[in-house]
Fold this protein.
Amino acid sequence: MLSNIFLLIGKSFYDLKDVDIYSYPDDINKKKDADFIHKVIFGHDHNSDPIFDDQSSSQTLKFENYEMDCPVSQIVDGQNVYTICVNSKMIIGLILEQDDNPYDYKEIFEELAFDLLNNEKCCAFEDEIEIENFLITLFIDIRRYGDEFIKKTPEISFAAGIFTKIFLFGIDDVGKSSLVRRIKTGKFNDNYLTPTRKFNIEYIQDKEGKGGLAIWDLPGQRTFREKWLTGIQDSNLIIYMIDVANQLRFEEARREFWNLVREYDLSEIPIIILGNKVDLINIKDKNGDQLHRRMQEMIDFLELDKLDNNNWRFLFTSVKTNYNIKEVMETVFNMI
């Protein structure tokens, strides 16, 4: 499975001072990882120096705007690396798990790189946001391919080998990754306060061991939201989370929810809406009329009654205090 992706761009690969390094989700440090970077560059040339020229060869694929060498598989400092050199000035690299066969990813790597590199909107590379979008898009699509098409045993072994895809989304700082961590480990960590930049898939086995869930957790910052459409494909159930204690972002949360619902055909896909951080709002009786009134207010504000073609459910939760987390899981398994 893909764990990291990086991009090296340089006027010259002879000196790292001329090379810009971008990576996702983990950073590659030019000074700290200089030896790693040098080995990756040398891996694209069989001579003693990493010399690149503009002359094409039989190994070069000619594209409309780019020339891309065939991918090169390397073990660099113990890491399983698969890289493509583009126009002699750019190297795109995948870091895979040790037991991955890089050549399983060859066709999808070349195909996606071709599509993105020839997409003017994506690949103008005029600023770091465009580069980050390029890396995130490539990362999510390759992870999706690896998760759905390459036969691998997930970290939890399912008796029947069947798992259901759950797409978890919401704007930043609502508690999505904390929810996955709570479900997976039963724990909550107060130290996880920084909004997550990582896209992650977690496997969770059901009670009877007959199957389980693959929870796709995508970041909620604005930069990542256009990638939600990529992640939501082929989902069996959707979970949308909002922070009910932050009224200043209610309108933003509603807008982003309906943007996705209108953009992508979600008819007949079950949807669970979680109003998280209920422990931070002033409700004295969390099992009585006051809570039900507040729930109806949220349902009305989010206009959930407009979900005519979906089986949906709204639940209040507190990932921090573990409030309603058990009911969330029971609702998930019932709805799928």
